[in-house]
Amino acid sequence: MTVGKDVSALFPDVVNCMQTDNLELKKLVYLYLMNYAKSQPDMAIMAVNTFVKDCEDPNPLIRALAVRTMGCIRVDKITEYLCEPLRKCLKDEDPYVRKTAAVCVAKLHDINAQLVEDQGFLDTLKDLISDSNPMVVANAVAALSEIAESHPSSNLLDLNPQSINKLLTALNECTEWGQIFILDCLANYTPKDDREAQSICERVTPRLSHANSAVVLSAVKVLMKFMEMLSKDLDYYGTLLKKLAPPLVTLLSAEPELQYVALRNINLIVQKRPEILKHEMKVFFVKYNDPIYVKLEKLDIMIRLASQANIAQVLAELKEYATEVDVDFVRKAVRAIGRCAIKVEQSAERCVSTLLDLIQTKVNYVVQEAIVVIKDIFRKYPNKYESVIATLCENLDSLDEPEARAAMIWIVGEYAERIDNADELLESFLEGFHDESTQVQLQLLTAIVKLFLKKPTETQELVQQVLSLATQDSDNPDLRDRGYIYWRLLSTDPVAAKEVVLAEKPLISEETDLIEPTLLDELICYIGTLASVYHKPPSAFVEGGRGVVHKSLPPRTASSESTESPETAPAGAPSGEQPDVIPTQGDLLGDLLNLDLGPPVSGPPLATTSVQMGAVDLLGGGLDSLIGGPNFVAPPAAAVPANLGASMGSGLSDLFDLTSGVGTLSGSYVVPKAVWLPAMKAKGLEISGTFTRQVGSISMDLQLTNKALQVMTDFAIQFNRNSFGLAPAAPLQVHAPLSPNQTVEISLPLNTVGSVMKMEPLNNLQVAVKNNIDVFYFSTLYPLHILFVEDGKMDRQMFLATWKDIPNENEAQFQIRDCPLNAEAVSSRLQGSNIFTVAKRNVEAQDMLYQSLKLTNGIWVLAELRIQPGNPSFTVRLPAPALPALGCLLPCAGQPLLPSLLPRAGVSLMGALAQLGWGPSEPDVNEHQNSEPSFQLSPIRLPR
Amino acid sequence: MIHSLFLINSSGDIFLEKHWKSVVSRSVCDYFFEAQERATEAENVPPVIPTPHHYLLSVYRHKIFFVAVIQTEVPPLFVIEFLHRVVDTFQDYFGVCSEPVIKDNVVVVYEVLEEMLDNGFPLATESNILKELIKPPTILRTVVNTITGSTNVGDQLPTGQLSVVPWRRTGVKYTNNEAYFDVIEEIDAIIDKSGSTITAEIQGVIDACVKLTGMPDLTLSFMNPRLLDDVSFHPCVRFKRWESERILSFIPPDGNFRLLSYHVSAQNLVAIPVYVKHNISFRDSSSLGRFEITVGPKQTMGKTIEGVIVTSQMPKGVLNMSLTPSQGTHTFDPVTKMLSWDVGKINPQKLPSLKGTMSLQAGASKPDENPTINLQFKIQQLAISGLKVNRLDMYGEKYKPFKGIKYMTKAGKFQVRT
User: Fold this and answer.
1) Which one of A100, A269, A345, A648 has the minimum C-beta count within 10 Å?
2) Cα angle for residues B268, B271, B276 (degrees, 5° grid)
3) Which of A750, A785, A820 is the last residue of a domain?
4) Which residues span the membrane (chain B) (predicted)?
5) Cis peptide leading into residue A761 (ω within 30°)
């Protein structure tokens, strides 16, 4: 205002002018104070008196002005003096003063939050929500909303049906801006049932005809949110859907900036409820003088709305756009044609021919984009449109962008058998191999290998050339590794190479750019806000420090819940799965395990508690947030290490190591004794041992050998806390002193009532052994099957029900090779280890065994065993949260120790089991895969 | 809420800033300048720009960027609507909204902005109320103020803000009581090469100028109200009455205001009052191209089409054009490649045409894109949707007002593809 000049030196003189009757002068002085009070805090005190006086002025305009200006003076010393006048103004008889004072509370809160709370202004503000004047109500709501934003936990806007009624009444009478505040506030309310939701919707609907677009969009937000609660069978639901379309369309005739925000929101709405705008495709057609940001958004929505009914129109439009001037827009238009082809199957042919027309234009960037999308079309409809390849090949030379080149090379490689001169084409790319971008190099490598596998005779030289280029002359590790893999594959097992390289590829999905359903639901609650513009939840970009409350759509009332999912799915744009997958799993687990989430008991815990703690523990840290009782302290979740799987696996694969003669048929399989503590490390004491389970009791069979020269006495043993609460059930009894070179065999009974702590790996057990010489520590891995309990046979019905409830993703599958036994033998042997056969049937000459087992902590594991002569395959399904990365984890987990431990079993069951049990809460599992089983004993108190 | 406002001219100078909360440094605009640089044209600057601590929401009007700075999650439409309101207010106060005018009236501008927002919350955005608080500058008032030292700040409480009809001030007095309504419709259409309509819709508004004494209560009824199924009303309109009887019932604001805006969607058949015949041909390896446009009336309900202006952005390859119009004047700017032809009235007996040749870059291949023709026109005394006002009645006051209604159809975004 002062053109950048600092006029703070005039402060005293200006303050002198404050006591004037001239309104304009007064206003200007106030304006001056607002700007300079901060730089002259001491002088500003001089102004306080005048403010206090002005707050008593008979003219409400002056009173309001004074209270308004006071709030803008951000000087701590002054704020204290403001409280009294503000309190008076909040109760002023004139609503104009009250509404100004309401905003002033928000200002004051910004300067000194504590002061506002101490002075009880928040309560006064809440009272103003019931004010008789709608403007005061609106401002009070606005002020409270702003304060609430910095206090996400506080329940400032605690809405109840009465206050909602007040707000709805005020909504009709206050200014447009007030309506926005009130509507935004309403959107945070969750009606108690669908009738209340409907009545609110009815009273909000007239706002859709407001001239202010922000009011309209806020009303849309409230309706979209509360609609979630209405049953779809209701007539009113249909009426509401119809009413929503026109205002949204009208938003698009506003200024471009408004259009942009509206379009971003419409994008969300279209994904959530495509039926609203399905007939309004035309309003999204692009005008050539729309700003580019509007054009791109319109294009996006056009694709979302594209369906069989309107695809012809859409394609004609897209083709028109592809001849426009703006390069970015043209590119996106060409991409859009490809997306249409993938989305609307019936239109694929038309899309391809449109793309071919565009290629004929020979406009460089159009051709390149077209080739990139044609590649995607090939991936969606393989073996359907290969006739166009010839046309594509004509344009080979004009491709200069890496993405287009890579796409073209992929096409050539994929259809090498149909392109006579594929080798020549690829060779021409190979000439400048080193100048290509990585993307192209990788594609070229793969394409040539594909070509070689398809036409081995003519292309030997080519493949050798590319392999040497990739492995010897390249610095890029990705390229080199891929080169080596191919090389080794080709040299060792060409058949396998063929299986790997030419494997059938999964079709690409219909739409990859849809917003994930849970996020979409959250974003619907944020319609009209910045979050909706960015399509990100506020927590992703709002400045840190302020916790953001996650909003979610209200649940539909019970009666209509079941109809929800089948209806949304086929409605056009697939909205994907219902977002409630995780809660159901929580419920499932809760039911299965009958979790009792009591606090961990210190001291000797009850057996049940311990078991259940173990269950929770096994399910990983992520679960506690799902079912988390506030008093439940979850053990710190650790990541799953790689060799956990292997070691666990050893146990189970050994179970299946059915030809081995060590195990007795009647009892559980016993691992041969291994040396746990070498004499070198324990001053001459060597301990080897194993774990057994017999008739329901677990024991640790120890063999102690004295390799020292002195006699050993006073043996004692203690376990560190571990995953399943294993603990010695009796003290270690070594009756006689152990003389040099003497060996003694001891069986130490164990129970599972010890305290529980998640270990890494899961079956790690840290043991301390004491004798008269010293205390020694070692750790060992116990085989998991000792924890399989005898009552692990599940009831058939329950088995069936549980099996169905487990989602497919949770399934792990692998094979055991070279197992000569038949179904009966397998079944009886497994039973020996408490893996029970629940049912058996014969399907297509294969024996199917359905197995169940139960761990000491109450977790059930279900399995299906399919036995084919010579090749039984084992399918495991587990009642545990999903672990999507299971497939890739398994081999990794198995690898390092497999060769030595598992001569036969391909992959470990228990590895999978353990992964499933622990994995889901840790998305960063991969990071930890290589970590050594680090092994630090926490202090154990030993009996002296 | 809204933290600060910066006004930036097209050359990138911040010529005005206003802060409603603490001062936000000008440097925040650097992010805006970056975005401005990236965008090829001023119109293409994205309206929402995130910066590490703030969000910049901008509108571009009258060659000025109005950039609002916000810090918390605020509905962006709220901010953008408000910015448009600021522009409208400036225009209302000063006649035009341009950099020199804003600079000349900087004190009034600050006073107005101060009244419009309080701590970022909108305070008074109704032009009626604002004008009562701060009187707009007129030459007479400026002279009087200079002599007497009085000011253009009103010393009255804006009573309207408190009443149930916040949009109307009390104690209005006129000697001539009059109420004028303008029904203005704009056709937005895209016509394809062959002349068929791809999409066409009508954006209609009813603007009113009401100068009536006291507290008049008006009702306005239409011959065919079912055309209005997608409407946005001025807050003064009683929505319930409209829902049940399809009658507009309202106590009008004083002076000029927009009573309602409506939208006749593409699904209804929209009459297209004008057609364009075009023949624009480029040939490969020829440095000459042919150009010919004829404009003619169609579905005008017997009314004359006036104020026709044809503009077209020609492809870059066009160096110059030598054209002869049968009427009106034409210009071609070889730098921006913008062809503009001011046709004037269309005489149905003698259709206006523009013919001639284009000289193209020698040796260059033919342009990739076809020029789109943009059309402006006006038709007086016709609402193309067929909307007609039936009657206007006044209650609550005794006098007999003078009533007037005017119809007009204009081209909005009317584009013909070639």
Assistant:
1) A345
2) 135
3) A785
4) none
5) yes
Residue B125 and residue B245 in one domain: no
Domain count, chain A: 4
Helix, strand, coil percent content, chain B, rounded in steps of 5: 20, 45, 40
Q: Which of A158, A177, A207 is the last residue of a domain?
A: A158
Quote the CA–CA distance of A847 and A861 in Å, as a whole number: 20
Measured distance CA(B62)–CA(B37) in Å, rounded: 19
**3 state DSSP class of A591:** helix
Domain of B34 in residue numbering reads as 1-146
Q: What is the pLDDT of residues A520-579, one digit of tens each?
A: 888 888 888 888 888 888 777 665 444 455 566 666 554 433 333 333 333 333 333 333
Q: Are residues A759 and A826 in the same domain?
A: no
Residue-number span of the structural domain to which A725 is assigned = 674-785
> Does the distance separating the beta carbons of B190 and A287 come in below 8 Å?
yes
If you measure CA to CA, which chain B residue comes closest to A325? B369
CA-wise closest residue to B292 among B332, B251, B326 = B326
Quick one: A3 and A143 in the same domain?
yes
The DSSP string of B208-254 is: EEEE-SS--EEEEEES-GGG-SSEEE-TTB-HHHHHHH-EEEE-PPS
Q: Among A762, A707, A750, A777, which residue's Cα sits nearest to residue A922? A: A762
Residue A930 belongs to a domain: no
Asked if B149 is an interface residue toward chain A (Cβ–Cβ < 8 A), one would say no
Rounded to the nearest angstrom, the minimum Cα separation between A320 and chain B is 9
Which residues in chain A (750-779) have CB-CB distances under 8 A to chain B? none
Cα separation, B403 vs B216, whole angstroms: 13
pLDDT at A350 over 80: yes
H or E stretch including B293? Answer: strand B288-297
Question: Using CB atoms and an 8 Å cut-off, which of residues 217-256 of chain B contact chain A?
Answer: 229-235, 239, 243
A119-128 b/e with 16+ CB inside 10 Å = b?
bebbebbeeb
Which range has highest mean pLDDT (A254-268, A574-588, A631-645, B360-374)? A254-268
Looking at the fold, whether B50 and B140 belong to one and the same domain comes out as: yes
CB of B35 within 8 Å of any CB in chain A?
no
B136 and B14 share one domain: yes
Query: Is residue A810 in a domain?
Result: yes
Q: Decide if B166 is inside a domain.
A: no
Residues A437 and A484 in one domain: yes
The Cα A784–Cα A618 span in angstroms is: 13
B368 vs A: CB within 8 A: yes
Residue A581: inside a domain: no
Gyration radius (Cα) of chain A, Å: 37
